């Protein structure tokens, strides 16, 4: 699949930047365009791989913003992005959309620009283009406090509504024990990039063909559910020396059956490991409607038997007959990786938690506001209201 990526806000821009870097390093061919959209010029200036010409500073003429951001206010974020959508439209008119299979709108949902702006952009893309619009939304960590959870809980339903599928990444689940808030972002952005690139590039026609090669339409079908998704991932290194001597042995057909069964075990084991490891969003796997398994790596490592047994295992875990599986050949890779997308999950404790934190925050915010209003009123008027203001 080829995509046009739009990173909205600080997190959206940084994750887009990392995906673009990963693409350049891995030689994969996913993004036809990566555009960073922000209301804060300083955030755009920090990006490293997205070219200057693809960084859009919106809201420069808005009196409240003037290029300095929206101060974590999603309502202002939404307004400003809406006002300046024509600038994004102009940037997209330079992109060869005929060569793009989907849009991916990326944002952290705890702030203002991404939280308010990403659903507006996704909605606009939906109205303008026929290609599906996917989202990648990052939930804030609990440690960030109530306001980010409140912003995220408000953005979440709008972003889900505006996209064909919202892939969710939970900062809370990915925070390392020793991480300060924001301390592990480079690491987590890299992890996100790996998963998204491996999943969405599956099915891109390369020179290598494989018996069970994934088809891009399978990826599209799995994501065409509405709702939200979580991604599972595991990888294992390849020892190139045994790899080459094994190919040599295989040529003489010695130990062939044993080799096949080892490979099959390795592939099915890797898929189990992926699903049992930390998901981008912790979910009850059983609640997935559709799933897709991608095995990416050198074709010599692929195993039809292994893939089939992994597929059956995921069917059992998800209680669903809609599990697709395929290989994504990458001849020069030095790892084999398994990506599983669990699409349209409905049992997600983390979202319930987020909403309950958001409700508390909403109560606090309105209580603080009314207390403050009362205090100001008391301060600026005399005790018995005897002085009449001019
Ligand atoms: P915005 O620019 O107003 O959209 O706000 P930010 O993107 O700065 O922050 C929104 C949320 O994104 C924060 O509450 C964090 O949870 C998250 N966040 C910010 N930067 C990163 C990042 O680099 N990686 C990840 N995973 N999350 C981030």
Describe this structure in words.
Helix 1 packs across helix 5, helix 1 packs across helix 8 and helix 3 packs parallel to helix 5. The chain is elongated. The mean pLDDT is 93. It starts with a strand and ends in a 10-residue tail after the last helix. Helices cover 47% and strands 18% of the residues. Strands 3-2-1-4-5-6-7-10-8-9 form a ten-stranded mixed beta sheet, sandwiched between helices. The longest helix has 32 residues. The protein is α/β, with parallel strands linked by helices. Bound molecules: guanosine-5'-diphosphate. The site of guanosine-5'-diphosphate has 20 residues, from helix 1, helix 5 and helix 8.
